[in-house]
Design a protein that fits this description.
Structural class: alpha/beta
CATH class of the largest domain: Alpha Beta
Number of domains: 2
Organism: Paraglaciecola hydrolytica
Strand content: 15-25%
Mean pLDDT: 92
Order of helices and strands: EHHEEEEEHEHEHEHEEEEHEHEHEHEH
Distance between the termini: 47 Å
Radius of gyration: 22 Å
InterPro entries: NAD(P)-bd_dom_sf (IPR036291), ODC_Mu_crystall (IPR003462), ODC_N (IPR023401)
Number of helices: 11
Shape: globular
CATH architecture of the largest domain: 3-Layer(aba) Sandwich
Protein name: Ornithine cyclodeaminase
Length: about 350
Amino acid sequence: MNSCNKLKSPNVPFLGVSHLLDLLADVGVENFLLGLAEYIQQDFMRWDEFDKSPRYASHSEEGVIELMPTSDGNNFSFKYVNGHPKNTLKGLQTVTAFGVLADVDSGYPLLISEMTVLTALRTAATSALVAKYLAPANSSVLALIGNGAQSEFQALAFKALLGITQVKLFDIDRSASIKCYENLKDKGLDVEICLSAQEAIEGAHIITTCTADKCNATILTDEMVANTVHINAIGGDCPGKTELDKNLLLRGDVFVEYEPQTRIEGDIQQLDASSFVTEIHRVISGLAPGRTVAQQLTIFDGVGFAVEDFSALRFVRDLMQQSPHQQKLDLLANPKDPRNLFGLLANSQKTSLRQAS
């Protein structure tokens, strides 16, 4: 029997926002990020076991709705996620998500989870995990270009996994930088708000770009960036949405999660299909080099991939089994005779009549 045991009841474990917040409070955010990164690394090291495909995406003028499925043969997962940059003008989140982990043998769901907060955590954990292999040795300064919902998670993940001590912030909306500063100022980091992207990246060892506009933008130009840094480009994640100068991509060594998906959605959509990139699981498994010399520009063109969501769901399910807080959903029909599903209706009507009398 696989690690995710068969359900013992029709009630499906459910991880809501409040339960996830309880888990984070019990474990600590940085410890959570460390554990999550470990699970992602484990799954990247068994990459060939997973079904892989570019995510299904339904695009509209205002945003995108996506489904992200994968399976390792024992368990199946998918995530529903949207991306609507203008939502903040309506007081709504740019990104919302939920996910399911299921047992392949029975098809029964093993966990249903919120994934709005969890996606932010898994994105940050993935970014920092990749940087362990690609960033300059002893990196201590992180520049965050784009200070929206993802920014604090990124800073804490880089602190936990790489020992970052200084964070330099820039956003065209200064209120976003102020929000990020207030959230991070008591987290053991030296935080500074900068007046421009150029000011933010000066002296930085790692540059994270995470902007939300659904357009081909140039957040970093070729001239701005030295050959000694690592760029964590995670804002370009759908067709027609980019952050990096094409010449910057041509100059650097580019690493991706799953090349067929990143060719569609990532910054490398600007490049010819013949341009060389390295899938990061090869570096993690020791099959390809990461950063090999100090004078090397490395770029992670991260768009988010289904295996990372699988890892996140697997991680929180294991945590939930140790948690005193358990939530269940009455989601699955459970007739005494599995062939007599209709009998549930008759039994329900009988119960209603007895209660009425």
